[in-house]
């Protein structure tokens, strides 16, 4: 089977911003120098792929003369994050082949305040694992923009991942609808895409589950899981 690169959920890039100390009660530690290591499990059809993914918080950089936290991923992509009274959002990103950051307009909200059950927001998204398997193999890409609606569903979940057990986690749930046309025989397929994210106080994102269920002759879906392996302070 052809191997496709794993999509990076935006929320993984936003667990910290640059600040001088770690707030042990914060769901979003703000200390520069933190690094998160994740185990990534991708399941599509009968295929299971395991990989590692890491993020570290670099030094602040300016975007439009305003300081932004910089998140740097395993592949060298830099994400520029800011926070205001309404929440945390991504302002720009820059890949290794870009000379300057590409500005997000409008900004991509990651978490909206207040951090309590019922708070909701929306963001554009795209399929992470869905792919065409017939008559050729191709992953569905960012060109398929969808609107995902998020809300804080719980403030006291317990999550167990390779890094350990985490109590009092914030759980964020997201939903988006996707309509795909397969062919004249199969017609249209309606798919409900779900994202669930868990954040632990003093740690940040500890687990993410993306579900894109679909199985027919033309398309294959599955799920993608990020689980925290370690946090380096």
From TrEMBL:
Gene3D superfamilies: 2.40.360.20. This is Lipoprotein.
């Amino acid at each position: 089977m052809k191997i496709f690169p794993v999509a990076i959920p935006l929320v993984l890039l936003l667990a910290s911003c640059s600040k001088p100390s770690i707030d042990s009660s914060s769901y979003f530690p703000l200390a520069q120098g933190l690094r998160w290591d994740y185990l990534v499990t991708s399941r599509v059809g009968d295929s299971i792929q395991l990989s590692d993914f890491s993020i570290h918080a670099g030094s602040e950089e300016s975007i439009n003369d305003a300081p932004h936290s910089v998140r740097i991923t395993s592949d060298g992509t830099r994400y520029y994050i800011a926070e205001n009274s309404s929440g945390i959002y991504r302002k720009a990103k820059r890949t290794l082949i870009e000379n300057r950051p590409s500005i997000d307009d409008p900004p991509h909200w990651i978490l909206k305040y207040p951090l309590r059950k019922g708070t909701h927001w929306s963001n554009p998204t795209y399929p992470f694992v869905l792919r065409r398997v017939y008559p050729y193999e191709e992953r569905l890409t960012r060109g398929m923009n969808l609107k995902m609606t998020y809300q804080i569903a719980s403030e006291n979940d317990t999550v167990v991942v390779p890094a350990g057990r985490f109590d009092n986690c914030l759980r964020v749930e997201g939903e988006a609808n996707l309509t795909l046309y397969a062919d004249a025989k199969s017609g249209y397929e309606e798919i409900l895409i779900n994202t669930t994210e868990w954040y632990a106080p003093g740690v940040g994102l500890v687990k993410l589950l993306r579900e894109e269920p679909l199985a027919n002759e033309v398309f294959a879906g599955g799920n993608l899981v990020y689980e925290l392996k370690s946090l380096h302070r």
